[in-house]
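User: I'm curious whether this sequence folds into something compact or stays loose and floppy. Could you predict its structure so I can see for myself?
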Amino acid sequence: MRNDGHPAGSWYAETAAVHLPDLPPPQGQVRTGVCIVGAGFTGLGAALALARAGVPVLVLEQARVGSGASGRNGGQVHPGHRQEAEWLEARVGRDVTRRLWDMAEAGRAHLAGLVADVAPEAGYRPGLVTARHRPGGEAEDARHVEHLARAYDYPHLSLLSREALAEELGTDVYHGGFRDDGGGHLHSLNLALGLARAVLAAGGVICEGAPALSWSRRGGGIEVATPTARITCDRLVLTGDGYMTAIAGSARDRVMPINNFVLVTEPLGARADRILRSGAAAADTRFVVNYFRKTDDGRLLFGGGETYRQTYPADLAGYVRRSLLKIYPDLADMGITHAWGGSVGVTLNRTPLVAAPAPGVTLAAGYSGQGVMLAPYVGHLLGREAAGDAAASEALGALRRLPAPAFPGGRWLRRPLTIAGLTWYALRDRL
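Assistant: Here's the prediction. I'll summarize afterward.
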């Protein structure tokens, strides 16, 4: 799905509290230290680290700052990684998994610092509930909570019985779960715009409407071509997640864009007191996840449903509303004021892709729905690495060890094969 800017119907764009100056595309011959492709969480996190280190940095954004997944997502802050620690342990071992967990915890602290320092308008709210959509998982939930507390020193999870969960969420369709006091939710576009504001204040350059068309070696440096300029740089950082273009080369075979959709209701009024009583966000355990949270003005922001083709449903609000009413049928009379869609990049293993496709070139994408917490910090580490920080490079090494296979089928068959597989898993949600 092409990204020309913030989507029509976006509650985030309508309520954005951070306003940037004009950011025109570059012109002619431009020289910088590091060129970054993509002004989302990863690219802006890298740019801020570089600008604060005194390294000249220029960010190319094909559309608008935060107009990709960073400014369209559900705003949920999930600690850890998309795959649980037990899954990672079985594939990369306990030591690497512990390094990954510690990196994610550093990312959680980094995000808190960003909200306090550069984007208070993001309005972080604590609390994240995981709701089990099938019965019979109490023992598994208990093992997960105990394992994170014992093996990873993470005491923030607490089990919720079916009755306690129903009291918290205001619906009885789920079968129990747990609360994570280390998670939370925020206004994701305000976070992206706040990051951009800080990059500009630190001396970085951001250019909107500036797609990166190609890159090539020129002498001892790298040249990046846009429709209006040639940028010469020492290092290149490629981001973009589900909106990566051909400039990413073969990395696109390892990241698949999936469309996801969000709606926002009119203010809930008195009903707000019984839905998400503690103010936490919630997500369920379906393969096609339903996720929801209340906004500061008492609306329900609800995400549900996904598609795997390059087109959106004709009626976005109606498409998501069907999932909403399965959880909250008594909201059938509630008006929908906003609805939009966007693409998120997923990998085959649902673990981030961090790669170095060529000397002086780094790439990060494929957060698989975990980007609000992970992407700004991965970007920060990429920026520190580009500035010569060996500790940042070592931290990124754990991510680079994660298996990141290409989707099967090659360039021509991977999409139909992936659609078939994902559709099967989505159908399992209904069984």
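Summary: The mean pLDDT is 93. The longest strand covers residues 336-346.
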